[in-house]
């Protein structure tokens, strides 16, 4: 939140300057994201092994061996072992010295203490401190530059970080993990419990920078969304991800405005984008483009997370019961379930082919985040907020509304896609950066964001948005349309028009 100079904000998070020009949260998100990506590329590049050609050969042999393992339920464990061998060989091609400093928790069953030790038995406390220390430093510099109080941010960030670790700890319990109840849900619940019982302390609010965390996470996500994913499934995957999505988004928005007559167009748009594109990521980008209120964003994310849990459990059961092929079922999952993590979990409940197809379709769909944000910004400036008697809005107005961090997302995708296309070593280099560094930091950024959403959300403030149950009706109707159209398009593309693509994938 920004206020005029020398004016204390209501939550005592004193803002002494108003960001101007490049000194905005969006540009800081881009800067932090590219700093992390750049440092990773430099460190891994300087650490290139002398015998890299031999390691590349070993990696290719591992890939060939994994491809030779039949993809059947009987060979599931062998297939997983072969895939793990490929990942291990890839890490040796481009070793990442920084990976050991990236802290993440492990799955645990009986004792939470086990979560703080990796598979080799090494305590991960120091890497966790290093990871959150780095994030605290970068977000702290950005927050202070934006005018927030350093004295409040430091204890606030420590508190929010501990809540994020608690959320991840809950999500990593073996039984909970088996049912796919991911960290996003627990982080939101932890924050909501605090904000709706004792109330969120002011020092925690000072570091509950929801959009700052998730915007930075989305910039880092861009490095993982490679354009070669488009080639992996070809035209069938593009049709499933890029044709159905805008149809569902536009139809759902029109349904909300003209049939349900929702009072808030911005809430209508955020729910439509959240449900049709890719969940939380699209919701954040769209909310920035149409200036949705934080309560509206919280409501949309809450709906998304609730239905994601249901769909990731029910859809694999439906796919198995109806005898769908792994490719068709995977494409259906990837095009409809909101969360990327939930897509992977649901696809994994079928087999490795379904997992690969589902994850690829979702990644192709993720590329639409930038296009959707830009389209919403244009529509909002030219149609929703425009005064009919006023002259046509200038491009500068659209540019002011456009979420700048999306440019970072797209640029990261272009850079790492180009890097991946240059050769095997370059592809391994990009993978070492994302897999060894930025995926971990991105995950923690999202976790911090979900905790922050919960801390900033009060159910009493959300009540007015539930009037008549319209948001719930909108989401259910939109998701039903999404499920039907995506299944039809996947069936049409993979089984009728391009059956050879299905045959290639299942080989």
List keywords for this structure.
507 residues; mainly alpha; 0% strand; globular; disordered N terminus
Task: Give the biggest beta sheet.
Answer: none
Strand content: under 5%
Shape, per Cα inertia axes: globular
Number of strands: 0
Q: In which range does the helix fraction lie?
A: over 70%
Q: How large is the count of helical segments?
A: 24
Low-confidence stretches: 1-19
Mean pLDDT: 84
- Gap between N and C termini, in Å? 54 Å
| Structural class designation | mainly alpha
Radius of gyration over all CA atoms, rounded: 23 Å
Query: How many structurally independent domains?
Result: 1
SSE sequence, one letter per element: HHHHHHHHHHHHHHHHHHHHHHHH
Q: What multimeric state do the chains show?
A: single chain
In terms of topology, how is this protein built?
Elements: H1 25-46, H2 52-68, H3 76-93, H4 125-145, H5 150-171, H6 174-178, H7 183-195, H8 202-205, H9 210-222, H10 228-242, H11 244-259, H12 265-278, H13 280-290, H14 294-322, H15 326-336, H16 340-348, H17 352-366, H18 368-384, H19 395-401, H20 405-421, H21 424-456, H22 459-462, H23 470-497, H24 499-505
């Amino acid at each position: 939140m920004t206020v005029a100079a020398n004016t204390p904000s209501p939550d005592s998070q004193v803002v002494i300057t108003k960001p101007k020009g490049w000194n905005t949260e969006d540009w800081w998100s881009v800067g932090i994201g590219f700093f992390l990506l750049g440092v990773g590329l430099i460190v891994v590049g300087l650490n290139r092994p002398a015998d890299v050609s031999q390691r590349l050969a070993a990696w290719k042999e591992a890939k060939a061996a994994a491809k030779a393992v039949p993809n059947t339920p009987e060979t599931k464990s062998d297939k997983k072992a072969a895939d793990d061998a490929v990942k291990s060989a890839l890490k040796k091609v481009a070793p990442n010295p920084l990976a050991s400093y990236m802290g993440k928790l492990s799955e645990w069953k009986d004792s939470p203490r086990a979560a703080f030790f990796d598979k080799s038995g090494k305590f991960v406390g120091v890497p966790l401190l290093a990871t959150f220390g780095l994030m605290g430093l970068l977000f702290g510099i950005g927050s202070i530059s934006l005018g927030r109080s350093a004295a409040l941010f430091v204890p606030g960030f420590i508190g929010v970080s501990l809540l994020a670790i608690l959320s991840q700890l809950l999500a990593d319990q073996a039984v909970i993990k088996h049912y796919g109840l991911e960290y996003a849900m627990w982080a939101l619940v932890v924050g909501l419990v605090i904000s709706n019982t004792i109330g969120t302390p002011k020092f925690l609010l000072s570091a509950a920078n929801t959009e700052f965390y998730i915007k930075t996470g989305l910039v880092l996500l861009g490095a993982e969304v490679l354009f070669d994913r488009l080639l992996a499934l070809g035209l069938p995957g593009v049709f499933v991800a890029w044709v159905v999505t805008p149809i569902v988004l536009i139809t759902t928005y029109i349904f909300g405005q003209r049939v349900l007559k929702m009072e808030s167009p911005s809430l209508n748009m955020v729910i439509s984008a959240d449900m049709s594109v890719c969940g939380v990521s699209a919701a954040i980008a769209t909310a920035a483009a149409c200036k949705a209120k934080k309560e509206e964003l919280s409501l949309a994310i809450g709906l998304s997370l609730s239905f994601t849990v249901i769909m990731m459990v029910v859809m694999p059961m439906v796919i198995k019961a109806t005898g769908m092929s792994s490719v068709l079922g995977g494409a259906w999952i990837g095009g409809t379930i909101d969360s990327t993590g939930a897509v992977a979990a649901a696809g994994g409940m079928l087999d490795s082919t379904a997992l690969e197809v589902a994850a690829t379709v979702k990644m192709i769909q993720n590329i639409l985040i930038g296009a959707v944000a830009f389209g919403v910004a244009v529509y909002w400036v030219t149609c929703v907020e425009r005064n009919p008697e006023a002259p046509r809005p200038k491009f500068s107005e659209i540019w002011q509304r456009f979420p700048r961090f999306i440019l970072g997302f797209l640029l990261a995708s272009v850079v790492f896609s180009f890097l991946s296309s240059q050769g095997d070593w370059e592809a391994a280099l990009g993978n070492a950066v994302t897999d060894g560094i930025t995926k971990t930091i991105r995950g923690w950024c999202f976790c911090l964001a979900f905790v922050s959403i919960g801390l900033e959300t009060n159910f009493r403030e959300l009540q007015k948005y539930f009037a008549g149950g319209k948001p719930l009706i909108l989401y259910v109707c939109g998701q039903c349309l999404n499920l039907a159209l995506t299944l039809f398009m996947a069936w049409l593309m993979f089984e009728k028009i391009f059956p050879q693509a299905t045959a290639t994938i299942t080989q």
